[in-house]
């Protein structure tokens, strides 16, 4: 079993004729993901890597009613409208790769999607992969292997690095989700944990957080209450971040002393989570957690 994406996932690529959309559509096809259609206004009737292109999501879904997932490579000024179009067409999972979307725009389309029963992953995220079944994102597929450890991360690069470390030590992954590094994102840590709690394939979970916001603290509170019962290993990026320095991720902001590295680590450890000092410690901590 898996969460979010699996062998039944049928993907629409919005922005498929652009450089990024075309490149990653092919990479997803090469991985075995069922990419069934693309959308670019004005490019309807063409094909990209054998995938038919339509002018609108509504047209694509009418021709391919099996579509259940969309991935968005549309530039930031137009990305919110692309999300609304996907949700209005009845697509229940929307992965937004685009970065640079204004926070208030994200708040509006995430709220709209929730009202319509759809899940948004991102924006500014690498996507989601269930190894051996489906990749809906921009991650290099060959570094993942099928297994029982879920990975949920705010950092794209650390998603790849830690997953690859797990793979090289023979620890496979159930589903890996990059939720994005913006201040407002669709899927949160706590929502991801609820999904993995119900997933019988997932034996343990790696949580990759960073400074800023309170998503890690809320996940810790959930674990402390016993609402997530599987072993959790965490790594929090930003321990050596200099004060008064703007960091790379828009969400990595410490405000009025909240969202610090120390506060997140303390909250997680008080919830019984093993917190790695460096990414390299994660595989050993996971192995130890699985033996308990």
TrEMBL record:
GO MF terms, alphabetically ordered: nucleotide binding; succinate-CoA ligase (ADP-forming) activity; succinate-CoA ligase (GDP-forming) activity
EC number: 6.2.1.5
GO biological process: tricarboxylic acid cycle
CoA-binding domain segment(s): 4-101
UniProtKB keywords: Ligase, Nucleotide-binding, Tricarboxylic acid cycle
Pathway: Carbohydrate metabolism; tricarboxylic acid cycle; succinate from succinyl-CoA (ligase route): step 1/1
Alphabetized Pfam families for the sequence: CoA_binding, Ligase_CoA
GO cellular component, one term: succinate-CoA ligase complex (ADP-forming)
HAMAP family: Succ_CoA_alpha (MF_01988)
Protein name as catalogued: Succinate--CoA ligase [ADP-forming] subunit alpha
Native organism: Aeropyrum camini SY1 = JCM 12091
